[in-house]
Amino acid sequence: APRSNGSSRDGSIAAVCASADDSSASLPPELRSLSSRLVTRLSPILHRAHARGVVLGAQLCMIDVRSGAILLDLALGHTCMFAPRRVTPSTYFNLREASKAFVALAVLRAIEKESSPLRLETAVGGATVSHVLSHTSGHIAYAP
């Protein structure tokens, strides 16, 4: 389970270890260096945004896609203004609209593969993949 390198009652950033041992000791040297640079550059940016009130709370995790190693896992702030709970690496966030970009990327990557039967023009129940990706149904807009 992840553990914090720093505590934060006031909402300051807590860098989180990838393992219960040492966060970067298990990483190869090139990834250890990258991890250190990411923390050095991104921690102050998130901290300033939080201090200015632009960010109430956030959690940022970066993973090396080749090895699956956690390069960065930062958490700061609180979940809510009215019933504040400290943000940790285990905090769940409702992604709502933010997930659309990930879904679109996954669908477009699937379409890129020639072996995929999926195409932008593929229709299900009158809506095409293109409609879904552009967040339209293909029907005329109606507002009473």
Features:
single chain, 144 residues, alpha+beta, three-stranded antiparallel β-sheet, two-stranded antiparallel sheet, 3 helices, 5 strands
Describe the structure.
This protein has 144 residues and is α+β, with helices and mostly antiparallel strands. The protein folds into 2 domains: 80 residues, no CATH class; 36 residues, no CATH class. It is built from 3 helices and 5 strands; from the N terminus they run E-H-E-E-H-E-E-H. Strands 1-3-2 form a 3-stranded antiparallel beta sheet. Strands 4-5 form a two-stranded antiparallel sheet. Strand 2 and strand 3 form a beta hairpin. 15% of the residues are buried. InterPro entries: Beta-lactam-related, Beta-lactam/transpept-like.
Secondary-structure blueprint of this entry?
Elements: E1 14-15, H1 29-51, E2 57-63, E3 70-77, H2 99-112, E4 123-124, E5 127-128, H3 129-133
Antiparallel strand pairs: 1-3, 2-3, 4-5
Organism: Chrysotila carterae
InterPro entries: Beta-lactam-related, Beta-lactam/transpept-like
Protein name: Beta-lactamase-related domain-containing protein
